[in-house]
Amino acid sequence: MARLPRLNPIGIPQHVIQRGNNRQACFCSEQDLIAYAGWLKEYSCEFDVQVHAWVFMTNHVHLLVTPQSEDGVSKMMQAIGRIYVRYFNREYGRSGTLWEGRYKSCLVQSEAYLLQCYRYIELNPVRANMVKEPADYYWSSYSCNGLGRKSTLATPHSEYLALGRYPKQRCERYRSLFRSHLDGRMIDEIRKSVNKGLALGSEKFKRALESRFERRVTEVLLGRPKISESEI
After folding, report:
1. Residue 52 above 60 pLDDT?
2. Do 62 and 17 form a contact (C-beta atoms < 8 A)?
3. What is the mean pLDDT of residues 53-60?
4. What is the CA radius of gyration of the chain?
């Protein structure tokens, strides 16, 4: 199946995943994580991409970002990918590819879905049984969004800012979102959308994207078309 052309519209959030090739580790030390975070900060600024949420796992990365420039996310990910591979190969005396092809991404509707995506990303270490609470995992944005830790990388999205008038109030309300489990259907929808390059949002949101960009952002159901009784 041919790949769908990637959409990078300015101002619409994207959930991005970059995986190690064959699920191999792409972070083997704290220094690796520091290096990646530094380049994420550098290139997000260079290509004008706002970073709202992130988690760096052993063999993959999740980001929630909003581009403010044309093709900003693609340029940022390509730049990070190239420089980090050179660093990693030099550091560990290896050669060849590190990443599993091109990164995966999906557009995310701000209303109702964006904060769900925040939660999905920051709960990754909990689902992987690495920690019991998201606050226990250092290499994610939870400490910024939920605990108020200062960060030069994080840019709060307007949906996050709408949680409260003051930073303390926003953090408290954000933490309250994590008191209940993320719905299993929502987890499946988020995974399917990003892995297949679809859109995450309401049907109205998806139809508007398809009309605007003349590109499919919904799943095509396989199988023979149904035959109505009038056709039998």
Report:
1. yes
2. yes
3. 98
4. 19
Select from 18, 29, 165, 205 the least CA-distant residue to 97: 18
- Residue 229 has a pLDDT of 45
pLDDT of 149 reads 96
Sketch the domain layout of the chain as residue ranges: 14-198
**How far apart are alpha carbons 223 and 221 in whole angstroms?**
7
CATH topology of domain 14-198: Alpha-Beta Plaits (3.30.70)
Please write the tens of the pLDDT for every residue from 210-230: 998 888 888 876 555 554 444
Q: At what angle do helices 110-122 and 184-196 cross, to 10 degrees?
A: 90
N residues, the chain: 232
